[in-house]
Design brief:
With about 280 residues, the chain is of the alpha/beta class. About 35% of the residues lie in helices and about 25% in strands. The strands form two sheets. Strands 6-5-4-7-8-10-9 form a seven-stranded mixed β-sheet.
Length: about 280
């Protein structure tokens, strides 16, 4: 029986809420409550006081406010016109809202394991499900493993109160991510805080050493790991402009132009270093 379908589960969940405990995830793990805070024109998502999981401007819910969310979307250099995008971790839905608005041809399939985060969907202006958007409550690792050869682009930004859950960093999960991509597909993963060496090495084992790129954030401790199944994209100005042209709206192109250029430069440097070695 699926978690949440029995009267006993509903009763124990109600008691837990009265005691201030968080909900269970789809695997039965107890989670910290998800809380929303509104202040000075911003809305933020929190699991722990003083630690922000997601943040948006109240007057511009589609705006990519946090730097690393823009860098992750440089995955569009590989697939400028994706047909289907998979997203692990809904949070405040920054990338979901941006992609839903500016890539009208793309279908988005999102998995989130925290019922409390889903309950805050309207607080963050995340659109309802439609023919192009589907948000599912499930375990992220299980969700991806069940969808081989499904996505042109896969974005992994699943965090709990303590960082990346172990289930989203195992060799098996990263191999499942590769298997979930269509030929020529690309994955972008947000790495925050800890030394990413182990994660990156596991990515290289799954995708191949020449198919992984790590890009840091100048103003944050985040690093973005890109991993792909086919050829690397064109890393010249023509390639950058072609990827930008696929976006609808000048504001989207202006938001992503700097990061597209920065990631293209990182690709060029990595290619040059590989040729020199």
């Amino acid at each position: 029986m699926a978690v949440g379908n029995s009267w006993w589960h509903r009763l124990t969940e109600a008691v837990a809420r009265l005691r201030g405990a968080g909900p269970l995830d789809p695997t039965g793990l107890r989670l910290r409550p998800a809380r929303v805070r509104q202040y000075n024109g911003y809305v933020s998502l929190h699991f722990i006081r003083g630690q922000t999981q997601s943040r948006m401007r109240s007057d511009a819910p589609d705006h990519l406010l946090i730097d690393y969310t823009r860098t992750m979307l440089a995955a569009l250099l590989w697939r400028p016109r994706p047909g289907r995008i998979g997203i692990v971790g809904l949070g405040g839905g920054s990338q979901v809202k941006f992609l839903h608005r500016h890539l009208p041809q793309a279908c988005l399939q999102v998995v989130e394991n925290h019922p409390g985060v889903l309950a805050l969907r309207r607080a963050f202006g995340i659109p309802d499900d439609d023919s192009r958007l589907e948000v599912t409550l499930d375990d992220g690792a299980r969700f991806i493993a069940a969808r081989p050869a499904r996505y042109d682009l896969l974005l992994v930004d699943g965090y709990d109160a303590h960082g990346i859950p172990e289930a989203l960093s195992t060799p098996a999960f990263l191999q499942a991510c590769r298997d979930a991509l269509l030929p020529g597909g690309v994955m972008a993963s947000n790495l925050h805080g800890d030394d990413p060496a182990v994660y990156v090495e596991r990515l290289r084992q799954a995708f191949g050493a020449g198919h992984v790129l790590l890009v840091g954030e100048a103003k944050m401790s985040n690093r973005i790991a890109f991993a792909w199944t086919g050829e690397a994209p064109d890393d010249d100005e023509e390639g950058v402009q072609a990827a930008l042209a696929a976006l609808s709206g000048g504001d989207a192109r202006r938001a992503l132009s700097p990061v597209f250029g920065r990631v293209a430069l990182a690709l060029r440097r990595q290619r040059t270093a590989a040729c020199a070695s």
